[in-house]
Amino acid sequence: MRALLSVSDKTGLVAFAEGLAALGFEIVSTGGTYRSLKEAGVAVTYIQDVTGFPEILDGRVKTLHPHIHGGILARRDGEHLGQLEKLGIVPIDLVAVNLYPFKATVEEDGVSLAEAIEKIDIGGPSMVRSAAKNHESVVIVVNPSRYPAVLKKLQEDGMNRDYRRKLAFEAFSHTAAYDAAISSYLGSLETEPPETFADDLIIAAQKVAELRYGENPHQHAAFYRSLKAPQGTIGGAKQIQGKALSFNNILDADAAFKIAMEFREFPAVAIVKHNNPCGVALGETAATAFERALAGDKVSAYGGIIGCNGPVTEEMAKRVVGSFFEAVAAPEYEEGALAVFQSKPNLRILETGYPLKREPFPYEIKKVGGGFLVQDSDGRSLSDDDLKLASGRAYDMETLSELHFAWRIVKHVKSNAIVVTKDKQVLGVGAGQMNRVGAAKIALNQAGENARGAVLASDAFFPFKDTVEEAARAGIKAIIQTGGSNTDEEV
């Protein structure tokens, strides 16, 4: 029996090779794997002694040879084995390969394209795919954590068809993820997003953690991070303190941070609960912005998640720990703020850094039964030139600025969505209602008397005049909405 070992990750390598040797396997190996086994005293045959050909092109070609792939791909029947014997090729019964560390390389700061290209493995995936294709006859191992189980199966003659298929599935998943990572990296180098959607949807992501549960306690869940997740995103964030993040924590932290980062003006603070903002405000300081955001809906804010678009100050931290929150997400923190947060050790603190460039995968994906919906991320901003005065007296610059503020927030509220704001502070939110007037009533009721002189934003047109009439009765002075209804003139 012959085993071919060629691995970048040498975890457990020597023990695995020794176990295979004890079972009667001849070990064949390449480059660094060969040297590691030789130094450990394992009997090992160098790859060029099998191929009769040296490694060439700085190691780019060493296993792409009929004596390797013929030995792996041959069916164990008379015809194929007869060809091998005629050609002097020895069958290979086990292949253990893991690939050049491409993902780890491109995640390093300052890595060049040339350096990344050199970490694209060619021979490794070829051997993995060959062995996985022929898994009825060849054992393929790509995960070092499998070594003890594989040895046990071999020792007990328990290498049945189901287990071989399981290893083959893992092998093809390994090469698929590897190719997806390369595709994602090369795509991230493009300065402009593609004009059309690709024919094949490729997502490169790596599991960060198994989560305690999903959206509900009976659901299993995990968190995956995009390859080279950029700073300025929740995927690229560093958790400084606190309990492990839950499924809903991650969703809400993403929402809160994205809302806060809508504003170039610092400071802006958003508080999110169940993926909707319950408070957003600007302020003279981070502390006052937080207090104003909290005042928008103190009841809903309890147990929420905070996003800030700049440094979290010590004073803001002192006010945050006065109430119960699940997490804070911000680009950076003052040392004094981190010291204050230590008084609440369960509070999750996420440091994102500031956004530097577009996401490598700048799309939003929704799962439907049997498929996916994909769209561009909604990064469009509204300019004054986009606005048309549909009715009423001419607006002043202060009102126009307030309308822009409300519009940035309503974008992040589940439709049907209504937001009421005044003085760059959210006063009321109507989210996810089945009709627009119902959403408006919720937002206006929450704003109460403060709605007088406030503005209202709607994320879509008004199908009837009833919402406008509700807003007028509450004292709203201006409305921003998309238009496009058959009843626009009446509205």
Query: Going across the major beta sheet, what is the strand order?
Result: 8-13-12-11-9-10
DSSP E strands, number: 19
Rg (CA only): 30 Å
Q: Termini distance?
A: 82 Å
Strand percentage, roughly?
15-25%
Pairing-aware structural class of the strands and helices?
alpha/beta
Provide tags for this entry.
36% helix; 18 helices; elongated; alpha/beta; 491 residues
Summarize the structure in short.
The protein is α/β, with parallel strands linked by helices and 491 residues long. Helices cover 36% and strands 19% of the residues. The strands form five sheets. It has a six-stranded mixed β-sheet with strand order 8-13-12-11-9-10, with helices on both faces. It has a five-stranded parallel β-sheet with strand order 3-2-1-4-5, sandwiched between helices.
Question: Can you walk me through this structure?
Answer:
- The chain is of the alpha/beta class and 491 residues long.
- Helix content is 36%, strand content 19%.
- The strands form 5 sheets. Strands 8-13-12-11-9-10 form a 6-stranded mixed sheet, sandwiched between helices.
- Helix 1 links the parallel strand 1 and strand 2 (26-29).
- The longest helix has 28 residues, at 161-188.
